[in-house]
Amino acid sequence: MTLTRRIALGVALLLVMTGCSLSDPDAGRSEPSGRATSTGSATTAATTTAPETSPDRQKLSTPDVQPDGFVDPPAGSGMQRYLSQKIEWRECGENECATVRVPLDYSAPDGQAITIAMTRRAATAGPRIGTLFINPGGPGASGQDYVDSFQTTGLERFDIVGWDPRGSGESTPVTCYGTSETDAFVELDASPDDDAENRALLEGTKAFARSCLEHSGALLAHVSTQDTARDLDLLRQLVGDDELYYAGVSYGTMIAATYAQMFPDKVGRMMLDGAVNITDDESVIQAMGFETAFDTFAQWCASNRCRFGSTVDEVKGTIGDWLDGLDQHPVTVGDRTLTQTLAASGLALFLYWDESQYENLLSTLAEAMDGRGEYLLQAADLLNSRQSNSYGSMFYGFSAILCADEADRGVAAAYAQWKADEDKAPFFAKYFGVGYTCPVWTAQPASKLVITASGAKPIMVIGGTGDSATPYQQAKWMADQLESGFLVTFDGAGHGAYGGKSSCIDSAVVAYLTTGAATADGLVCTAG
Does 241 lie in the same domain as 105? Predict the structure, then answer.
């Protein structure tokens, strides 16, 4: 998993540091796989056949393993056995928690079942509107953890429910290597300078993919966003709502858009913040968002006469030269090593915020350049979901979900794409590295949906002009492609806009979710 595969992890981990996108430049499109089924009423979604057919994915036998969360299906038969479940909420700190069962494969509801875990903060005001499902992104971030940090002011008439999507968290998680093997994988040079480094990265990525298959088995073939959308519709029915109320950030907007395509008649109100790319247009890549955010930091640094230089080019040059030097001379941090790839990961994490984190980024980089790399390594660990001496399920689920969603053009095309992307984002595209994970994955991707959500009620799409992880153009594209989408713009920096950055944004979101008031397309809000 190279940096470009891991970068979206930061969106959910911001919650840790304050209390992730899904734009993949080398991803292609898949042919229909014939896996279309639903919880019952999904609209038959259009697919396209494209030349990208994942030619280099490893073709291996699926081992008969039982990951945590594999359970027997409920009593009965067919989908009705799942729809007849009763949610048994139990006290869980200040909230309530529950688990339900869903089919591993919706085309075989009488086969293997898996577990979905969720947390609820009950409505505190009346009359109750319904359940607002929330998701913080990733892919693979914990919706349960998001419940405590999600801003609920004005939304007190909703039950707020966050769930861990299949493949992650306390739901049935994807598992792979142990900690030491994952550390070795993460320390591989993601931006190879010669054939030997490139071979090492490729072989290491293949071994990582095989480890996920060995530990997760059949689960890997059933963790796509389409599978998650079906889970979400089942959850909607189990809580008793006729329509879905939803708020999602980053990859959470992909879940929502996919759901709206599959179940347009069940869309109630959806707020999609920090929208990802749902189009076929690859002219704007994620690295460009980080490049813009880094330029803004460099301008701030130069204006404040920081030690890195007096101009943007000098600041970027100083930091770039240091990163390049780490290729041969990494920084020792205890029994670990701050490599070039890990240092770039730590730098990228800070760029999820606005200027409020510039001082911290400056001091963290300065200390690392002086040989004290522990804080920059901690930032990289947060991005990589590394906690103490273990990796969170999000690290592994991220790759599994991404590769279940997107086909690719193979190993050679991934390398060529990496080189081509440097023209669009000369600084960050280089360090993001080669995207080999999906080209050598062991499971095939789901069929591709053409997402227009025809027939759905108005859907709010929010984009930030200075968003690093999900460039603003992606929000504009999503609002245009969704037939009922309307765009709200946050003119400011940082990833995601709702939740305290802008009273204008927050007011528009609350009004829309509680009353259905669709703010006029084109509303622009600023910070404050």
Answer: yes
